[in-house]
Structure formats: structure tokens, C-alpha cells
Structures
1.
Amino acid sequence: MQVPLLDLKAQYETLRDAIRPEIEAVMDSQQFILGPKVEGFEAAICQYTGAPHAIGVSSGTDALLMALMALEIGPGDAVVTTPYTFFGTAGSISRTGARPVFVDIDPATYNLSLDALEQCLDACTREADGTLRLATGERVRAIMPVHLFGLCAPMDELLALAKRHGLFVIEDAAQALGARYPGREGSRHAGTMGEVGCYSFFPSKNLGAFGDAGLVVCNDAALADRLRALRNHGGERRYYHRWVGGNFRIDALQAIVLGIKLPHLDSWSARRRENAARYHAALQAAGLLPLLGFPTRPYADSGEPHHHNFNQFVLRVPRRDELCAALSEAGIGHAIYYPLPLHLQECFADLGYGEGDFPEAERAARETIALPVYPELPEASIGYVVETLARFYQPGR
Ligand SMILES: *Cc1c(COP(=O)(O)O)cnc(C)c1O
């Protein structure tokens, strides 16, 4: 049996009749960049997430970069984030000229550890004017939590820390559109809790475009105006530039595809959660649960149904690399998110981090594996994956 990690064709089959005429209409109009289709999609995202402002952009990475630019974060500044994430998180910080500062993760959720974050901030110097300074001299301006694998970071505590230290919060919600965080202020959408939230519509994300695309949401109207200008080379009217921005625009074609898919997102996420629950039951029946680190679901009992969207289904497993080989042999798709934490990346060598600095991120990089969880995954495939795991871990059975 072949079980792909992700099967985008299965989803497309259900939507092709809705999508093709709309794409045809854009081709007939020959209006490809921004325009009413993009505005319509932005309005749909506002409606869906409850965010007052949405700005469609060219990718999730550009969304993060623009968020930092809009908050005037650059040389001499620092932004605190996690080393266990996709490269774009910290890469965008570096691209502004600011310094990424890493803190370790919580081994249960893989999100930023609150204790580590607090320790990092407490170790900074607080100057008379409120400036928070690193030992290396940079001014700490923001925290960039990542809602990894579709599970929100502990935002109540994180927002309180940010407020206490006078820092912005930029949410990397690239994997978490549609996940809700049941916090003190009720359930809120991933991406809508900090100053700015960033989404990615890379095709393999839970809401995927037909190419690259992303989006920024924010609560503040002036910040939204600035983001909209930055998307278009920092000009509020053509050829007059108030800021230096970039070409961060989204295409009408992507907005159309995303607008057609968005109404299905919650039901797709529900299927992902059901698949995770099926894995749980099957692994338990096979006696494998005690052996594996099954994903924790810290908000599962909150009454919020969308407490995790399982953009990835990531287990902690013994003999990970051998298991990968066995899965490949059995025709089962899998992936490692992420094999090398960001503090050990070659391009960040000048930040001065080394092996052992963030032991939980390093351990996660060695021990975790992502298994197929996409909404259309047949139940029989889950059975086959679990059977394959059982044969690997209990060969004598
Ligand atoms: C995918 C992803 C990004 C970048 O999004 P792109 O659209 O691929 O640029 C950033 N952060 C995280 C956590 C991601 O998973």
C-alpha cells in the first residue's frame, strides 16, 4: 500500500469544478495583481478570524518580514523566537538587520517555553527609559511565537510577559490558520492575538494556494495602512514612496483559489483532528502508545473544538532514523520537521550559539517524525501505518 504524506490531488478533485471557471474569468479579465478578488479574500479572512484588517501578500515569509518592517524593527534591535521552526521565522528577523534571539521549547508542545522566555527577558538590562537591552547591546523589541504544527503557543502568559516588558508580539501562524486559542478573553484565532499575525498559503499548508501566497492580519488601522503600503514598495499612491517597501503583492489567481477553499477549512481541520484521534486509538490498541510521544493536546478539554488543527501530525519516536527507512520501505510518506534547529544553522554561526544551548529543540530534531494526517487520508491507511509501526517496534509479535 502507498500512503503519501499529503495528497493535494484528492482535495483538488472535489474543488476543480468550482475553481476552473473562476480562474478562466481572471484570464479573460487579464487583471492579475491585487484588485477586487484579493479584496474579497481579505474580507473573507477578516470575517473568518475576527481580525479587523487583512493584507494579502506574496508568501508567509514575506508576511513576517513585512510585519517586522511595519513595526520599524531593524539594525540594533532583537526579536526573541524559537529555534525549532521553519527557517523563515528567524530568517525574516535577520533580513531586517535585527538579531534573532532563541529560547528553548517546551518538550510537550514544541512551542516556545514560557520559563525559557521569561529567563531570557529577565537576563536583559532594563534601562531608565524602559529599553530592554541584551548583553550583546541590541534592544529587544518583539517576541515572535510560532504556533507550531497547528497548536497555539500559550498566549495568555506570553502576551502578559510581552506587556510587562513593553514588547510587540508577532505571531507566526503559518501553520495555524483556523486554530483557536481558548484563553482568558475567550476563544481567539491564531494570528489575531498579538500586534500582527502572519499566515502562509504555501501549497502544503492546511489552506494552500496554487503557488506561493501569504497574509498579514492586525488590529490597528494605521499599522494596516502601513502594511498595505509596504506591500507595494512603501507608496500610498503610485510613484510616491513614503517608506522603502517591496513587491510583496498577492495574485488575484491565488486569492480566488484561497477564497474557494476557505469555507472548507474548518471541516478539513476537523478531519485532521479525527485522523489524529484514530491514530491514538489504533496505537493504543497495538500497545504502542507508551513507547511513543503522542502529540499533546493541552486545550482539548477547553470546550473549544478547534483547539489544534494538526497541520502536521508529529510523534516522538525511538530509533527515529531506522523507522524512517522502514516507512520508506513500506511506501509510507513521512517527514522530519525539523532536522537541524535554527541556532545550529550555518548562516547563523555568527550569532554565537552552539550544540547544547537548546537541548529540547535539539532532542526534538533528533526524535520526531511527521506522519500522514491530511483530511482525505483513508481510515485503512491509518491502520496500515500503525501496523507498520507495530511490525517495526514489536518484530516478534
Ligand atoms: C511555511 C512557514 C513559513 C513560511 O511560509 P512561506 O509561505 O513558505 O514563505 C514561516 N513559518 C512557518 C512556521 C512555516 O511553517
Note: The first helix runs from residue 8 to 29.
2.
Amino acid sequence: MAPSSRHLLLLLLATTLIVPSASSHDDGGAGKAVYTKVCDESRFEAAGLVMSRYPYCNASIPYADRVHDLIGWMTVEEKVSNLGDWADGAPRIGLPPYMWWSEALHGLSSTGPTTKFDDPKKPRLHSGRAAVFNGTVFANVINSAASFNETLWMSIGQAISTEARAMYNLGKSGLTYWSPNINVVRDPRWGRALETPGEDPYVVGRYAVNFVRGMQDVPGHAGAGVDPMSRPLKTAACCKHYAAYDVDDWYGHNRFKFDARVEERDMVETFQRPFEMCVRDGDVSSVMCSYNRVNGIPACADARLLSGTIRRDWGLHGYIVSDCDAVRVMALNATWLGYTAVEASAAVLKAGLDLDCGMSWIVQDGKPVMDYLTSYGMEAIRMGKMREADIDNALTNLYMTLMRLGYFDGMSKYETLNEEDICTDQHKSLALDGARQGMVLLKNDDNLLPLNAEKHAAVSIRGPHAEAPEKVMDGDYTGPPCRYVTPLEGISKDVKIAHAANVTIYFGGINMHIEREGNDREDILLPKNQTEEILRVAEASPNPIVLVILCGGGVDISFAHGNPKIGAILWAGYPGGEGGQAIADVIFGRYNPGGRLPLTWFKNKYIHQIPMTSMALRPRPDHGYPGRTYKFYDGPEVLYPFGHGLSYTKFRYELTDATKGATVKISAAGRHCKRLSYKAGTLHAAPSCPAIDVASHACEETVAFNVSVINHGDADGAHAVLVYTIPPREVAGAPIKQVVAFQRVFVKAGSAATVGFKLNVCKAFGIVEKTAYTVVPSGISAIHLENGDSSSPSSVSFPVKISFYA
Ligand SMILES: *[C@@H]1O[C@H](CO)[C@@H](O)[C@H](O)[C@H]1NC(C)=O
Ligand SMILES: *[C@@H]1O[C@H](CO)[C@@H](O)[C@H](O)[C@H]1NC(C)=O
Ligand SMILES: *[C@@H]1O[C@H](CO)[C@@H](O)[C@H](O)[C@H]1NC(C)=O
Ligand SMILES: *[C@@H]1O[C@H](CO)[C@@H](O)[C@H](O)[C@H]1NC(C)=O
Ligand SMILES: *[C@@H]1O[C@H](CO)[C@@H](O)[C@H](O)[C@H]1NC(C)=O
Ligand SMILES: *[C@@H]1O[C@H](CO)[C@@H](O)[C@H](O)[C@H]1NC(C)=O
Ligand SMILES: *[C@@H]1O[C@H](CO)[C@@H](O)[C@H](O)[C@H]1NC(C)=O
């Protein structure tokens, strides 16, 4: 069938069959639970089928056997028609169409064809179902990351999946969500920094694990001993975009054609690390491959990256989906190996892709842009380029995931969720609390903040973001928020706004015209006229002003940092629907900011030293190449370092168990010793066993310590403790330092909280050597903590001696 006529048919099917038991929806009662599942006797009867004839609907048979049965009924045409995100199902045997593509980056998103909020301006298509106009929009991920609070990240995932299940029950959404975005922010110009948890691979990985577990885990079915192939899923999350994807469009280098030239060491240490954590520790049920090429090969056609690494090495339980529409891009834009559409389709399936996300609703040249696998799969089979067995394998991965989601049998725990479970007070307050937790105080001369509502009876509000519209505050991948508070509205609740007040708050920053998907920045400055306006306002004000900056990636605001008339600077990210309230709570001291920057804020000069297209993390002084992220760059072009963040109180660290150092002895017998490079002149002779290969070691050794976080200021507050390790200083090419653990704690003024850490030696002291082995080096490493508060710095360091014995 030609793509266009097939598409028409799909549209018809979709409106009638996409919701498995359409009739049960016509209960007329808003508020009443409506639930849908494939294996519903009445559905089969209505279609003239007898359900008991289909073992795939027999809930007492193991999932794998049911899936085998289901695929066994399907003709090859039916199989092929289910390899795209807008899947036909097989109505002949009772399997309805399913739309795979939903998004939930920081709340249910309208992006993609599946999740549909009702439009108040349009009459409702399904009059019997309750309308849902809005969902909870949490702060953007870069904000949440700044909280360094794993509980928050998981809670957000839990709240979103509850709203997702409710929308699914109402026939307005799917069960499979292509979130989170866990690409590391390698370069400050990247347009999608706002969508991500920042520049540190470990922090990004922990974000992924927590968000995914919040989205997926069904209480009581997540622990050890649960069969990962049948473990139920609340919703299915997806870690994207794999791999080495972080150029969108920079001076004509666009993501569709970009070939990321990546050393294997950087691949393991930086680009793949969050994905490995997402799969191994988060047990995510999907990974999405990216548009770009990695060392010449399109990511979605790379068997080593897909079948080899994700599925075999990391043991994915789930499916691999292409970015939408990476397969077409491979043939049309990357023009890889001159592949035809048929050859590209065959190549991705062979490499281990299970599902092709297309752009089915985009019409180009009068035709819908279909996904390639369903459009060209049959031809590929006829030409002998695609094996039916590979299709069966892909479908198995897909239907196993749907089985675990209760798509076939229902999931009683979530069947009663409905519109009343969306935008609940609990979710709205989580969004508000999350937005507050992510605010980062960058500068606060003479404790200008917090403002005192009595003392500062009137404030003057200036700047382009004072009345920032939803699309600025909410960022991207979002739906209509439950509630929307602008900064001005938030501030107005406390104060009188006046033109001639003695305190001015300027709301500036950038927006999605400047940083967004498909658009990287050319500089990291504020717009010139905004800089000029801020300086004018500051100059004209009798007292120092407060500057609130909205942005995802960092901006070079050196001009403001160094200006005594700009007394305080607050980074608010893009804080979501409750953002205006969260900003006001921080400004007036109802919430003491405890966020820390999850990425380095560079000075603009830095970007002139490094092309965005160079992937290497490590510096090359001989080439004038400065290196990237706090782990490798230690030059002067940093405005605010990774981890920077002030507070209204003061925190000091004390090592409570008085460790002056730790010694770890590891038997090297039977271990694989690896060589390391050393800095010139640091060692007389290399040790006989310089480092052990982590893969050959049981990795049971730990280093534990307690640190007391003392609040010696006069406000209660939360503080995020970041723990770094520093590799032995003689080792060449090692990171300057690396985050290995973190914990956010609340401490009352005048008291202290003890935080305990137990670090696994391989995980915390492991480094990736030149040939990409993860090794533990012998010698003296260090554990290092610093509070990130340049106005009241405190740090703790102690050596950890690691030695091997034969
Ligand atoms: C479902 O499978 C079980 C186990 O194989 C079998 O005993 C039962 O008869 C099946 N039910 C139906 C309706 O076929
Ligand atoms: C991809 O290739 C098609 C066909 O040549 C072209 O129409 C389209 O603009 C290209 N897209 C990009 C992003 O370059
Ligand atoms: C809820 O969504 C509707 C439809 O998009 C929008 O018009 C309305 O403003 C939203 N409500 C709030 C409080 O933002
Ligand atoms: C602002 O004005 C109020 C009332 O005029 C005054 O009490 C307060 O001290 C002023 N604050 C500053 C920071 O000048
Ligand atoms: C800066 O210029 C742009 C484009 O002319 C304009 O839209 C914007 O409002 C100006 N911003 C300020 C702060 O003056
Ligand atoms: C940390 O403190 C806890 C509670 O007091 C204690 O049980 C533990 O042994 C301490 N850890 C270390 C490494 O001293
Ligand atoms: C971490 O987040 C959770 C969930 O929002 C919150 O209850 C808790 O107070 C936060 N912890 C700290 C120390 O801020």
C-alpha cells in the first residue's frame, strides 16, 4: 500500500480503535473510572472474535509465551505494520492499534501525536469522556538537577506517571514515554541544556535512575528477586538520545548530518555513562538512538552501540526506538553509504532497533512523512535484505514491554485514576517545592536578599521576563499548566509594586528563540540591548538592584557580577507553572535557596577557544584546546563554577569521624593490572601494578565517612553536599575531580546534621584510562567536599591511599 493511502486508513482506525474498548468510554459520567485493556472479552465479542481462542490473552501463561503466541498469529505484513510508532496492531486477531510516542520530560507534554489535552475552544470529540485541559508542569530538568535532591527527582517521576495513567484511562495518552533526556551538556552553547540534568555524567545518571524509577516502578514489584522480564511497569520511560548527541545546529553543523568524532575513552567515561546507569541501575524499559553519527556510523544503525552495548553488555529489558525520524534522516540527509530507504530500514533492524519513530502527522509535498520500517519493510523482505526473524525479535521486545504495562490485562492498581488525579494539590505543591529547591543564588552582596516585605514596602519590577509568558517559564516539551504564575504575579502577592521604590528587581535572561531544540547559541551573552538596559536600571537606582536570570544553559553575566550596583543575582532557570511563586518565595525569604549549579557558567571568551563540534573532553595544551566541563577545564574563563550556589545562611563542614585518611589494600593476585601514563617528573618508577581493571575485580571495598554539616548562620536552610574524588596527582589525563556522591540535607539555624557516605572503591575512585578500561589507580587519591559558597567557603579533604598486594 502506498504510504499516503495507508496513512488515511491509519487515521480512520485510530479514531475508532486506538482506545481498545471504545464502548466502555461512553458511560457518560465524568469522574467515573474508564479503563481500557486489550484482553477484554466484550471487545473481542464486538469484533466477532472469541477471546479464549487466543492464548496471548490468557493471563495464566508467562508473558514470553503469550508474546510468542501473539506474534505467531500475525502475517508478515501485519508484523511489518507494527514496527512504527503509529502501530496498526492486527485487528483481525483482536490487537488494536497503539501509538507509542508520548513525552513527559517535566510533566505530560503535548509533543508527539499521542498525548492530547482537550482544547477549550474546540468541541469535544468524545462527549462521554471528561475533558482534561491542563497537567502539572514541573520546573525544567536543569532546575530540578540544581536541587541535587534524588527524592525530588523520583517524586516528580511518580507524579507524572500518575497523571499519565489517568490520561491513558481517559483515552488521551499512551503508556510509553520518551523521557528523560540524559545527554551530558558538553558545550555551553548547546540549545537543549534546559532539558537535561547538566554536565556531570554521574549526576546526570543519578537523575536518570531516579526519574525512571519514579515513572516505572510499581510499589512492591521493584526490589531484588523480581523477574525483570515480567516486572510490572507503571509507565515506560526512555533514556535518550544515545549516543554522543549534543549538537543541534551550530553554524550549519546540524544534528541530522553531524558526525561526532569521539574517542573510546570519552565514550565510556562521559557520553555513555548516564545511559549505562539508566539501563543497569534504573532498569529503564527503553533507549532512544539519536540522529547523529558516532565515528562515521549513524547511531541507529550501529550494531555495536545497540545490540552490543545496550542489549548485551548492559542487559536492557525493553525496546530500542529511533529518534523521530532518524531512519529517514539516515537515508535522505546523512546519505550514509548511499543507502536507499529499503537498505536503511534493513540496516537499523539488523543493528538492533525495535521501533521506528516517524513523523506521521507531518505532510511534506502533499504526502505524510511515514516511518521507514513500516513503509519499506515489506520491500526489504522481498529483496532478501530483512529477515522475518529479526522482525519477530523486535516485536517481542515491544510486546513484552506492553505486557508489563498491563496494556493487555489492565493493572488494577491504576485503573481508577482519572481527571481528578491530574493537577492535584499535592502535584502542584510538588511543582512549587521543586522549583524552589532548584533556585540558585549566584551573588548576594551585603545580604541584599532576602527582601523584607516590611522594610521594602514597595519594589519596582523591570525587565523582559517580569511578565514572562508560559512559553518562557515552562520551557519545552510541555503541556498547558494547571496554574500559571508569572514573576510579577508572584512578587505582587507580597508587595506593593511602585515605580519609585527603593528596590528594583530586574527579570532578564534568554528564551527559546535563543536556546532550544534545533538551535544552538552562537554566543553565551545576554542580548546586547538587555545588558545595556540592566546597566541603565542599576545606574539609575538609588540602591543596588536584584537581578533574576531565566535561562537553561549558562550566560556570561560578568558585567553584572562585577557591578556593585547589582547587589544580588538569582538563577531561576525555567521554573515551570509555579515558577513566579517560587521566585517570590526565595526573594522574600520564605524559602532559603539551596540549589547549586549543575553546569559551569563560562565566560564568553571560552567559546572562542573551542569549536562546538570538537567532542574531546580533555585539554590539549599543545593545540590550545582548553578541555571541557569542570572535570577537565581549569582555565580562567569560568564565571561561576559547577556546584556554585549561595544561601541566606552559612554552612560549614566538619569530618565527624576524624578520618585523616583511609587505606585500602586490594589483592592484585589474579587481577588484570593496567598501565597508566604519568605526568613527567612525578614518579621515579611506575608501580609494578599501576592500576587494576575494575571489570576483573569483585569491587567490594568501601570507604565510609561522616561529615557534619553545621549551619552557623541565622536562617534554616537546605544544603546539597557534593562529594568529589581527586585521582592521584601523578596520573596523566585524569579528571581534575569528579562527583561520586551527593546528598541534600535540611539544617536548622544553629544546629548540625550528620551525613554519612559509603563509597564503593571501584565506583568512586575508578578512572577511565587511555584505552577505555575503567581502572582503580594505586597511589593517593583524595576525597574532597566544598560547600560551593564563595561568600563563606568551607571544604574538607582527606587522602585515600590505595595499594595492591600480590
Ligand atoms: C490458560 O492457560 C492455562 C495454563 O496453560 C490453562 O490451564 C487454561 O485452560 C487456559 N485458559 C483458557 C481460557 O484457555
Ligand atoms: C533532508 O533531506 C531532504 C531531502 O533532500 C530535504 O528536503 C530536507 O530539507 C533535509 N533536511 C535537513 C534538516 O537537512
Ligand atoms: C489550561 O489549559 C488551557 C488550554 O490550553 C489554557 O487556555 C488555560 O490557560 C490553562 N490554564 C492555566 C491556568 O494555565
Ligand atoms: C526603603 O524604603 C523604606 C521606606 O521608605 C525604608 O524604610 C527602607 O529602609 C528603605 N530600604 C532601603 C534598602 O533603602
Ligand atoms: C531588545 O531588542 C529586541 C529586538 O528589537 C526587542 O524585542 C527587545 O524588547 C529589546 N529588549 C530590551 C530589554 O530592550
Ligand atoms: C557514621 O555515623 C554513624 C552514626 O553515628 C555510625 O554508626 C558510623 O559508624 C559512622 N561512620 C563512620 C565511618 O565512622
Ligand atoms: C527533597 O525533596 C523532597 C521531595 O520534594 C522534599 O520533601 C525534601 O524536603 C527535599 N529535601 C531537602 C533537604 O530539601
Note: The radius of gyration is 27 Å.
